[in-house]
Amino acid sequence: MISLNSNILVTGGAGFIGSNFVLQWLTEQRTPVTVLDKLTYAGNMENLASVQKDTRYGFVCGDIVDGAMVRRLLDKQSPAAVVHLAAESHVDRSILGPAEFIRTNIVGTFQLLEAVRGYWMELPTEQRSAFRFLHVSTDEVYGSLKPTAPAFTEETPYAPNSPYSASKAASDHLVRAYYHTYGLPVLTTNCSNNYGPRQFPEKLIPLVMRNALKGLPLPVYGDGKNVRDWLYVEDHCDGIRTVLERGVPGQTYNIGGRHEVSNIEVVRQICTIMDELKPTGKPYASLISFVKDRLGHDRRYAMDISKIERELGWLPRETFASGLRKTIHWYLDNPEWVEHVTNGSYQEWINMQYIPTSPVGAVSQ
What we know:
Blueprint: E1 8-11, H1 16-28, E2 33-37, E3 57-61, H2 67-77, E4 81-84, H3 91-96, H4 99-121, H5 125-130, E5 132-138, H6 163-182, E6 186-191, E7 193-195, H7 204-214, E8 218-221, E9 227-232, H8 233-246, E10 252-255, E11 260-262, H9 263-277, E12 288-291, H10 306-312, H11 320-333, H12 335-341, H13 344-353
Parallel strand pairs: 1-2, 1-4, 2-3, 4-5, 5-6, 6-10, 7-9, 8-12
Antiparallel strand pairs: 9-11
């Protein structure tokens, strides 16, 4: 069992989930954390601005594919755990350009594992026994569920349907192999759809928020009835800390929000809250526009989280309603953050990705 009084290394710590995890760690654990991040379009130093002067926080700009660099960093920092969040994570981008997903999610995870294995093997016996490598993955590795099918469990066979989910499935298998082959004390978490502050506006909730504030169409794929289990990011981060502290090496733990909501219902709920908090005289729902469906779009994800509840005592604290309201408040209170991350290349991506198939205002309730 790792002591949460130890220092840790977090890969991808400037991204959405990573930055929320780092901020929560420094608040709750109050021990040192080093962030390793490549700072791609989704990595943003503004996410960590509030801790820039915190002496417990350190940042290194680097790529996990560079195994030699990672090993030097491990030797220098001597972390008691590595939390692996660095990943390419957007399905749409993986469909248009899968190569970067293979490079980062598969090759990068392999190089990271190799560096960590070498570092771990040279630790003194007590530190080696306490060390943990926690790999953060996704529910998408399990594939798609039919409307009435039971939720994913940790025993559900893998059936990834996109280049993104396939690359994450491969990384999960590599992590498992390093436990069974080398004895590396790994932990894997598979989470459901995260939402909350600091999420890059290519994902549904911040994209809809941004467009609503600008009076632009609110794009919904297909018929909008694709269902996801929504997990507030701070609950996810708390779940990761729980697994890191009490999880059993070699085990996988599903982390979900226990809130299945269709995409169209998510958009409608955003519109309702926006009508209350930022009224314009015209319902935001009048901006809803259906767009061409994503290729191979999984119909439904749902997570059975009974294992982490039963074995580790973890449950999400936020309902979807409370988490969504907190999220909307954050974006309304931080317009500069949104503008800084949505540059010209972002707008080009949006224009290319979301081609309307029905007129603006096709859905008004």
